[in-house]
Amino acid sequence: MRWRGRLLASVMGVALAGGLGWGVFRVVAPAPGVRVLLVGLDGVDWRIAKPIMDRGGMPHLASLVRRGASGSLRSIEPLISPPIWTSIATGVKPERHGITWFLCDTDKPDRRVPVTSTVREAKAFWNVLSEHRRTVGVVGWWATYPAEQVRGFVVSDFVGYHNFGNTGRSVETDLGKTYPPRSIERIRDLLPDPARVGHEEASRFLEVDNEEFEEAIRGKGRFAGPIQLFRTYLETARSYAAIAERLTRRFSPDVLAVYFELPDAASHLFARFAPPRGSSISEEGWSRFSGTLEEVYRHQDELLGRLLRRMGPQGLVLVVSDHGFRWGERRPEEGDSVDVGAASRWHETDGILVAAGPGIRRGYEIPRASVLDVLPTLFRYLDVPVARDLDGAPLLDLFEPDWLEAHPARIVDSYGTPREASAEPATDADGVARGFAEEHERRLAALGYLSREGASPDLHSADLRGDLSEFHVTPFSAP
Questions:
Q1: What values do phi and psi take at 57, rounded to 5?
Q2: N or C: which end of the chain has fewer CB within 10 A?
């Protein structure tokens, strides 16, 4: 395996290219506004969102639906975040882009590392757009560490909290966390800090008094784990929105892409408590968290509104989710505790897709679409050639016929691969992220994501109760 050489080469390449300037790609003169805004909302489901929209609780998403096209977005297997979001970014299936799970194997049988950009074997939209002289801004997207050289900026997923509290912030060096490298200094005061979420803010979402909240963040009490995790996800979402705003003012990219894990994470923690109350839900859990998920959806819409203010007058907005979420009577009956190891059984195949902007059919209901169609549709709008070897295709029925006629298609055979694998260095090249890799693997093992034999994408059963420093894991057989 050459992952170590590729990781070090990428980190050092970014550092050398960006240390004295903006690297290989130079920033062009600022445009009047973002031309395309791509917002990734992990796990958002229409069955949850539409009733809230009907009650006026998500005005920004509702406005986009009214003035654009919308429908379901069919996902792909396995229904877990790293492969799907990488497929959205590349337009190809996991077996082609190479990211098929949370971890990847190394040349040592007992060592696995978190998926990174060096593992990806297909070009992402930020690579292709940069090659075609479009400027891009990417914030928080899965598997973007180390940040690649682009025309614009990348804030990698290592600056936030994801996957049940994991964070690349523990990697001591800042190299690779952003591109250009010195962008980290521009946003350091915005990096997510869960301590910013105090009881006053949390009380908007959780019906807990101040004493119970303070006990929970110290790892005490029955609901300590979910409350601790919720703080990290809420703060990460707010941080990503603020970072996107600040760097967009600086770079004014043609395409801005921002990923939010908050809806999916909050769904795993609190969808079980939402109305109608399930037979296995306690009165205590119901009283504290029955309104949490709806309030999260409302807040996520507020963050969407902040990003919409960065749009230019002729901008296209794409809102996508990687999968849906089981709701109502389809919810698994697990009681109050979070069965993290079996998280994927809460996932549904259909997520959401919304497109609004010039040339998009107003009020159109999209009959069929796949996560693999997002990249080619984005490129079709930007007049960037669409590759024949993609697994998806442009959603042409989104566009007005006159717009399609005025913008003829451009096609190429392939975008090629993102990079050549670097030779193995003489030194231990994985030292940059070793500590994070070990902690990440420990957490996944404790949560039931690893079999006792080694790496496996199969999800096993685990319970998460109380203090997150002491995971309680059930046997590996079915619960």
A1: -85, -15
A2: C
Is residue 11 within 8 Å of 234, Cβ to Cβ?
no
pLDDT tens digits for 406-434?
A: 999 999 999 998 754 333 322 233 444 55
Please, what's the b/e burial string for 373-406 (b: 16 or more CB within 10 A of its CB; e: otherwise)? bbbbbbbbbbebebbeebbbbbbeebbeeeebee
Name the 3-class secondary structure at 313.
strand
Closest CA to 70 of 327, 313, 367: 367
Q: In this predicted model, what pLDDT tens digit does every residue of 313-337 receive, in sequence order?
A: 779 999 999 999 999 889 998 898 8
Domain assignments of the chain as residue spans, ordered by start: 3-19+36-446
As a whole number, mean pLDDT of residues 2-27 equals: 47
Do the beta carbons of residue 347 and residue 326 sit within 8 Å?
yes
φ/ψ region of 394 (left if φ > 0, alpha if ψ in -120 to 50, else beta) reads beta
Show the tokens assigned to 477: 């057989």
Q: Which residues face 324 on adjacent strands?
A: 348
Residue 314: its H or E element: strand 311-320
Rg from Cα positions in the chain: 21
Cα–Cα distances (Å) from 250 to 130, 132, 183, 308, 390, in that order, read 17, 21, 10, 16, 33
**Do the Cβ atoms of 397 and 364 come closer than 8 Å?**
yes
Minimal CA–CA distance to 153: which of 126, 188, 175?
126
Give 97-125 pLDDT, tens digit per residue. Answer: 999 887 776 666 666 677 889 889 999 99
Q: CB under 8 Å to 264, separation ≥6 — which residues?
A: 42, 43, 44, 81, 325
Q: What is the pLDDT of residues 174-209, one digit of tens each?
A: 889 999 999 999 999 999 999 999 999 999 999 999
- CA 390 to each of CA 322, 382, 393, 396: distance values in angstroms, whole numbers, following the listed order: 18, 17, 7, 15
3-19+36-446: CATH topology is Alkaline Phosphatase, subunit A (3.40.720)
